[in-house]
User: What shape does this take?
Amino acid sequence: PSDGPQGGLMPCGGMWWRVMLVAMAGAAAPSMALIASHPQLPSAAPAVASSLAFAPCCLDRKPKASALEDNRACPRPRLFWRRRKDSLVNMAGGGEALAPSDGPQGAPLVRLAAYLTNLFPLWVLAGGVLGVTRPAALAWLKGDLITASLALTMLFMGMTLDVKDFQRVMQSPRQVFLGFMCQFTIMPFLGWSMAKLFGLSPAFAVGLILVSACPGGTASNLVTLIAKADVALSVLMTTVSTMAAPIMTPLLTSILAGSLVPVDASGLLISTLQVVLAPVGLGLAINTFAPAVCKMVSGVTPLLCVVLVSLICGSVIAQTASSFIAAGLPLLGAVIGLHLGGFLLGYFVPRILGYPEPISRTVSIETGMQNSALGVVLATRNFADPLTALPCAISATCHSVLGSSFAAYWRLGGRKKEEPKDPSRG
Assistant: This one.
């Protein structure tokens, strides 16, 4: 395996790869600039904390008469905020106007952390570029450190959850079920199909199938906000798919990749329980019994999550840099095809079924964006070939760039539709 992938992969030099990295950075820059300058985001650190850490907090749509009292009693920040003159509007709770003192205070460091977090695709892209160009810089992050980093990310997620969040699934069961089915049918099928179509080696094929069977990505809620989709539904879908991952991810990987290499389904199950369910459960317990602690760190945890995921994916690329470059276009094309197909099918399936535009966008984003860091950890812990983790690491960059690009397109398209026509132009 150390000699590079075999089996039909196109041997290419490093020139095309440098060109590809520059192209990806150029593609990501406009949409990232839009995200970073979004008027609802720079002053809303708790909002980004909630979105990047899967935070379905305080999503009840209460009557306006009791909304202000409920907001003041809530020990955690609301999901999303935007300023309207001298008041704050709760974006997740029905748009009720709140007193300025009830919203985020906008401390300089917290605002800076929120701004940096909004650039999450560029962070992941930077980690990948560093892994290719300076592998030694990330060689220290491996083994148990990678596992601990992901577990810490999942802990931050759990610290934003509440027991009532799971009860809210019953309020929109059809939409949540639709997202669940798209997540665990469309993506695994695309992962298997792309591995066959591009003739990937067994190690790369298993890695692609593994990441396609992972739950929704950590940044999907933020991308959903930018795309003017249903944020509350996105949060629920991400939570449900994450909690189902200990069963669905090992099962689907075993079924689809078992013919390529031996798959230890029980090992995958145990690993997923250790790095997903246990940290999330611990975080949920902390938020239940010590909510003040969660509120205190909510301004910086999303940035830590972004940095940790970027380091995890960059370290895997660094450890397999030579194979990464030698793999050529087939591996990159397969990963891009996986996520591009997920975004497109995740959008058109709900539209065909008659769901409105916001729900279709939400399902698209939840389907196309995967928890690639989880795939990296499962690959490194359960498969002997280190190349198995490489498609998972590439996946993080691809779905971040594609997701932010789709969000920017939908948002700009929505603005054009909302622009009033000039009567003088007929």
Remarks:
- The longest helix spans residues 390-418.
- The radius of gyration is 21 Å.
